[in-house]
Amino acid sequence: MNEHTPATLELDDIQRGVLSPRPTPYAATYILFRVDDRAQGRELMRRLSVAVTSAADSMSPLGDTWVSVALTYQGLKALGVPQASLDTFAWEFRQGMAARAAALGDAGDSGPARWEPPLGTPDAHVLLVALAPDSARLQAAVDSARPAYEALPGVTAIWRQDCHALPTETEPFGYRDGVSHPAIQGSGIAGSNPLEAPLKAGEFVLGYPDELGGVQAPQPDVLGRNGTYVAFRKLHQRVALFRRYLKDNATGPEDEELLAAKIMGRWRSGAPLALCPLHDDPDLGADAARRNAFLYQQNDPAGFTTPGGCHIRRANPRDAAVAGVPRLHRMIRRGTVYGPPLPDGVLDDDGADRGLMFAFIGAHLGRQFEFVQTEWLNDGVFFGAGPARDPLTGSTDGSGDFTIPRRPVRRRLCGLPRFVVTRGGEYGFMPSLTALRWLGDLTDRA
Asked: Domain DyP dimeric alpha+beta barrel spans what residues (predicted)?
């Protein structure tokens, strides 16, 4: 294949949950299973190969509704995948997210010892995700998958997290979510930024050339090809703490909103500072065709409009000349809200658990999810800010700061507390539909 010829993705073999942006609004549920009986675990794979939606199925009777499945390393072991094959998976995946906690900044309140069980334990084997535009269609999707695991006593549901869209279609801190999605060659799905060239399919789907020309896939090929890796994280958001910090560090309500925009890189409506630096523009924030059409390097290299340390610029530096080529660290990010909203104006924690179930999808756990988490979100060296961490999601401890470039004098926020706490997570492998059938047909050698 010519290196300039886009790969033809086998969409009918790729899980739809890999490539499709989530609908807006949405409802979702995550169900985690433990496999105690190998034969029944394999039967689960056979049944799921029918229930899981493919990326080619864009005309489902249920509309923007799909079921996806991922397996942990321990889950693949529980199914009896040969060790020679297991050894070909990414080493970060083989270790598991809990073992990578120190590198990811999951310490203190975010440490695995405080995670919500059974997340991060050897009991986490298979994660089933169902997503739909509303609760009725979500229930239909769950019902369609239910026969896959019911009547299998050797497969036990051990954890469930229900998610939903807030009435405001924002995440708990109040920002419009789901704004950015990369264009992927061969996917047939347009990216959210018309200024970003489509990325090679191998950045997100195993078995295809990536941006460096390499092809990565666990072996045998029937298992690895058309699959991908996913990092799931349950992130608790300290909404009252965030609101109080803004209030305590602002001169008034308008300044609170400006600080919130500088911390995120967007106004709460979704309108980016890059396109409206002085005030919010809700019409722009609601316009999916315009709100993500911007770059940084030509118009704002020093970050006077969009601070270099803000959340969206750290997570996706776009065209900026930073440590590492940004295209090599691009990911698909998806967040689904859980828990009740904190009423407007409340500045005290009500004790409710609320936040995001986050999924980061890509073919390279190390240079995508882990690199962004460790080098961009939890460090500031790449843009000249020393050890400064992401002011919104970084693993701060109350001693961090955030600098807002400004003429003639910069503005600095100090004493940043930890606004987002990791409640658990797993590294998963999302097999192709063919691989699900292969896993179902595994046999034990005598």
From this structure: 27-143
- Pairwise CA distance, residues 443 & 433, whole Å: 18
Q: Place 324 in a pLDDT band, splitting at 50, 70 and 90.
A: low
Q: Can you give the residue ranges of every domain in the chain?
A: 20-171+208-220+425-440, 236-424
Structure tokens at 153: 């006593």
Phi and psi at 428, nearest 5°, equal -125, 160
Q: What tens digit of pLDDT does each residue of 60-75 get?
A: 555 688 899 999 999 9
Measuring CA to CA, which residue among 96, 34, 117 is closest to residue 429? Answer: 96
Is the bond leading into 122 cis (omega within 30 degrees of zero)?
no
Question: What's 358's DSSP letter?
Answer: E
Burial of 184 (0-12, 13-18, 19+ CB in 10 A): buried
Which stretches of 216-371 are DSSP H helices?
221-224, 239-249, 253-264, 282-285, 311-315, 371
Coil, strand or helix: which one is 214? Answer: coil
Picking from 211, 202, 41, 57, the residue whose alpha carbon sits closest to that of residue 126 is: 41
**Greatest Cα-to-Cα distance within the chain, rounded to the nearest angstrom:** 76
